[in-house]
């Protein structure tokens, strides 16, 4: 009697905001590596990691991803999907681990998994030193948390991980290492930069496609999802509602909401008189508070999510 070889089970962490040709390319590459594999994606539900409304509904993204080869979907709700990279990545990988994946595939600008494994093990084995370095850099005026962690990482390992997909990739690998997960990480070289405003043959970044959608340009060469399937909702349209919440909520109660800490409630109260979402976010951004941090905090206040 012969034991049947286990079918490879590949996991991917995604937003698909929107699902585009770069994602199709990634799925095709996975199918080449593992012809008989099962693919499970952990996909953000309504809101992105930047605290914005995802431009295609869940069911639409699911339909097109399934058409191009994804088998199963795990929903990442706002408490995970709209978090900083280290929380978003860790929670998503742990959800995929529960589904039994044995490979995790992700896009990467440097495409060097061995470097990520080396750094992840270095941090794990020198965690106290790493945390002390983060605290040291946070105490220095003007350093945001992402900047402090990057400086700490650079001092500890001698490596600079600054590109968006590399940052997420390292966090995925750190989760695998820290939890001793029986998962092999595999990177695929990015076809185009994460926030690139350029297009490359049939490829455009999700960020570029979103801006093309707003300006009324033809997106059909870059995504299989028709324009009419996209949502016209924009996070900036919620600003009046957000203003009411901040104005009518006492500062002490505001401080009890998720993502509100280190005086962000004072910052929000100070700038709430500004007329537009863009003006408000711009006024709140500083060396200490990144744009993404402010936008995520905005979202959690808008949704009235308490700690």
UniProtKB/TrEMBL annotation:
Entry keyword annotation includes Nucleotidyltransferase: no
Molecular function via GO: RNA binding; transferase activity
Coiled-coil annotated spans: none
Pfam families, sorted: HIGH_NTase1
Keyword tRNA processing: no
UniProt keywords, alphabetically: RNA-binding, Transferase
Cross-referenced InterPro entries: Cyt_trans-like (IPR004821), Rossmann-like_a/b/a_fold (IPR014729), tRNA(Met)_cyd_acetate_ligase (IPR008513)
NCBIfam families: cyt_tran_rel, PRK13671.1
UniProt xrefs under PANTHER family: TRNA(MET) CYTIDINE ACETATE LIGASE (PTHR37825)
Protein name: Nucleotidyltransferase
């Amino acid at each position: 009697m012969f034991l049947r070889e286990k079918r490879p089970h590949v996991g991917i962490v995604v937003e698909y905001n929107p699902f585009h040709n770069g994602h199709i390319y990634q799925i095709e590459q996975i199918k080449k590596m593992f012809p008989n594999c099962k693919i499970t994606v952990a996909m953000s539900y309504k809101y992105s990691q930047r605290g914005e409304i995802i431009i295609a509904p869940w069911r639409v993204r699911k339909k097109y991803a399934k058409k191009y080869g994804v088998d199963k979907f795990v929903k990442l709700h706002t408490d995970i999907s709209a978090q900083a990279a280290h929380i978003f990545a860790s929670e998503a990988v742990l959800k995929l681990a529960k589904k039994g994946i044995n490979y995790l595939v992700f896009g990467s600008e440097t495409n060097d998994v061995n470097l990520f494994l080396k750094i992840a093990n270095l941090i794990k084995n020198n965690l106290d030193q790493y945390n002390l370095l983060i605290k040291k850099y946070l105490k220095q005026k003007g350093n945001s948390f992402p900047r402090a962690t990057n400086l700490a990482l650079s001092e500890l390992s001698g490596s600079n991980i600054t590109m968006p997909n590399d940052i997420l990739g390292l966090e995925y690998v750190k989760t695998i290492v820290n939890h001793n997960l029986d998962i092999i990480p595999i990177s695929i070289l990015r076809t185009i930069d994460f926030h690139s405003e350029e297009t490359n043959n049939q490829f455009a970044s999700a960020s570029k496609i979103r801006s093309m959608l707003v300006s009324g340009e033809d997106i059909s060469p870059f995504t299989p999802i028709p324009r009419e399937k996209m949502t016209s909702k924009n996070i900036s349209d919620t600003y009046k509602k957000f203003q009411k919440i901040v104005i009518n909520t006492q500062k002490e109660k505001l401080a009890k909401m998720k993502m509100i800490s280190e005086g962000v409630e004072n910052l929000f109260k100070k700038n709430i008189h500004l007329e537009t979402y863009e003006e408000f976010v711009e006024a709140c951004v500083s060396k200490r508070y990144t744009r993404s941090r402010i936008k995520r905090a905005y979202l959690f206040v808008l949704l009235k999510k308490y700690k």
